[in-house]
Amino acid sequence: MASEVTFRVQRFDPKTDREPRFKEYRVRNEPGMTVLDGLLQIKAETDPTLSFRRSCRSGICGSCAVRINGSSRPCCNAQINDNIVGGRLLVEPLANFDIIKDLVVNLDAFWGKIRQVHPWNESGEFRHTGKALMEVTADDLSEIRKTEGCIFCASCHSDCEALRSNRDFVGPAAIVRAYRFMHDPRDRLGNKRLDELKARTGIGVWLCAICGNCGESCPKLIPTNECIASFKNSWFSENKAPDGLKTTAENLEKMGRVYELDEFALRMREKLGLPPLTPNNAPKLEPILKKKGVAK
Ligand code: SF4
Ligand code: SF4
Ligand code: FES
């Protein structure tokens, strides 16, 4: 049975507005309607000036992501009835981006970060066998498939706490992309993707606070935390951790977060017997890591 719901939608027109503002619309809510259906109804019947992106309406193209009640996701994948709070539903543009108009954001920075990690196979020599005919094993495929489903919706980028504090951070989607190619046996660049990035920006993956938001917002259930932790772990084994830990500690403090909440940090503390990580403590970690043979 149809009912009514109020959509509170953030509006911003750079030609006339100095700041974003909110406008409320009554939406006819029929069973099965998605948040995108509601926006399409507003545009068709109430306010043709409302701008938003959409294409497939099937959760495939990734273009319709917005923040619904503060959490980012493709809005064609979100039922209205699952998202009503106190008779209303709040719709805002993705965060960590500049707004072009209303719910449309400028994704250049997102695509720029994806490009930075060389999202293609750098082939030329084969890492596994060196044979002319490349063997891709079932294990290789299962690693690739973990991340292959990314639809580049940028929801993870929008909900990323580290990006909120520093937009130079590479961001979860680019890390996921790097992971995908790093585990492809036809690729020879591997981990160097993020090494190069760290050399250029001085940040790399260490700014991540393991807040877990990226995993929660991903509509494709990609294990983003696992991808990030795998890069951190590999740097531990390559003795590049001490600098990274300092970056992590400084950023966690800037964000007002407690290192003890960081799952990766807890594992490392347990494994290596590290003291609590704070920016002041970070230099003290180096001798401990050296003693444990983790750093040179
Ligand atoms: S876990 Fe790291 S990359 Fe993911 S949203 Fe949090 S800070 Fe960003
Ligand atoms: S990792 Fe998930 S949330 Fe991030 S861009 Fe890809 S599909 Fe979207
Ligand atoms: S319109 Fe394509 S994912 Fe929503």
CATH class of the largest domain: Mainly Alpha
Strand content: 5-15%
Distance between the termini: 68 Å
CATH architecture of the largest domain: Orthogonal Bundle
How many DSSP helices?
A: 12
Shape: globular
Helix content: 25-40%
In a few lines, what is going on in this structure?
The protein is α+β, with helices and mostly antiparallel strands and 296 residues long.
What does this structure look like?
The structure is a single chain. The chain is an alpha+beta fold and about 300 residues long. The protein has two domains: about 5-105, Beta-grasp domain (Ubiquitin-like (UB roll), Roll), CATH 3.10.20; about 105-240, Fumarate Reductase Iron-sulfur Protein, Chain B, domain 2 (Orthogonal Bundle), CATH 1.10.1060.10. It is about 40% helix and about 10% strand. It has helices at about 35-45, 110-115, 140-150, 155-160, 160-165, 170-180, 190-200, 215, 225-235, 240-255, 265-270, 280-290; strands at about 5-10, 20-30, 65-70, 70-75, 90, 100, 105. The strands form two sheets. Strands 2-1-5-3-4 form a five-stranded mixed beta sheet. Strands 6-7 form a two-stranded antiparallel ribbon. Helix 3 (about 140-150) runs antiparallel to helix 6 and helix 10 (about 240-255) runs antiparallel to helix 12 (about 280-290). Bound molecules: iron/sulfur cluster (2 copies) and FE2/S2 (inorganic) cluster. One iron/sulfur cluster binds near residues 159 and 211.
